[in-house]
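User: Good morning. I'm curious how zinc ion would be positioned relative to this chain. Could you predict the structure with it bound?
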Amino acid sequence: MKIIYCEDHRLHFPQAELSGGQFVTPFERPSRVEYVLNRLKERKLTQISAPDPVDMKPVQALLDPGYLIFLETAWDEWKAAGMEGEIIAANVPARGMHMDRIPDNIDGKVGYYCHASETAMTQGTWAAALSSVASAQTAQRLVADGADSAFALCRPPGHHATADQYGGYCFINNAAVVADMFRASGAEKVAILDIDFHHGNGTQALFYDRSDVMFASLHGAPQDAYPYYLGYADETGVGAGEGFNLNYPMPPGTPYDVWREALDDSIAKISAWGAEALVVSLGVDAYKEDPISFFKLESDDFTDAGRRIGRMKLPTVFCMEGGYAVEAVGINTVNVLEGFKD
Ligand code: SP5
Ligand code: ZN
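Assistant: Good morning! Here's the predicted structure, ligand included:
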């Protein structure tokens, strides 16, 4: 399997994540990628290449133009306004306030374009986010040109980012851009399977009214897990998109046999629909030791999950999402890829 990776991810490394009322070293940190790279090398998966330059057209086609300008200019505006620290959203439009008037003040703009204040932005965030989506795009082109599969080792991750909001460590929704590119390169039906522990709220929102991209997400139930305000089972799509959004929320302590039933159900629905291409939002935070999650998957379970995904026999792009038990992130990620290839 070809692997696409760009070291520019390092440009995004905030000092701080707001967690439990304290600033801590972010869970989503550059070393996560090193663990994956080391494990790939250990397993002799060495077909690793750098991405082609980012193609902004598919990104602009999917996302809000004002949001993209915001991401590009936020750091300079923040500094110009005399802010001393990293960009953290302190004020957000809440119930009863205007949801559609964008302030001029950068502090107000940050809140408008952010849905989760745990996520800081820094000087290099925009460049890193572009390198991340560039890796996803290069993986997509490889598969569209005939490869069975490709793995984009994306960082920062993407699945929480919507058309106009960042949060959950995500800025540009890599998997969504890939799905839309599969449509443009000729696939009529594209499925996105999101196995990250957290609900892929951004991906759901981007395709909620569309019948050409099916979205399925296995995740911690919103009553108990970030992103808290989306991800219920009764969110099934709207308009033409009705029936094309599949949520599998699961409670704290969920073991693999329960999780696997949800996986099998989502796979059966994607296959029965007749998807022609598959995008996997590959988070490995469903692991039992993950520091911010509450499922109970073992490392071998990721191999089994990969095998089940592989049995769909679809052209597949994997986009790296979350996973924070850093030593195990490498093993679990590569287990999915090896299971897929068995
Ligand atoms: C891509 C991805 O996996 N994003 C996850 C974002 C999670 N944001 C909320 C984190 C809450 C962390 N709470 C820490 C409690 C530690 N005991
Ligand atoms: Zn996650």
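Residues 236 and 245 are 5 Å apart (CA to CA). The pocket of SP5 (ligand 1) is lined by residues 19-20, 118, 157, 160, 168-170, 196, 198, 226, 283, 285, 291-292, 321-322 (CB under 6 Å).
Let me know if you'd like a different ligand tried.
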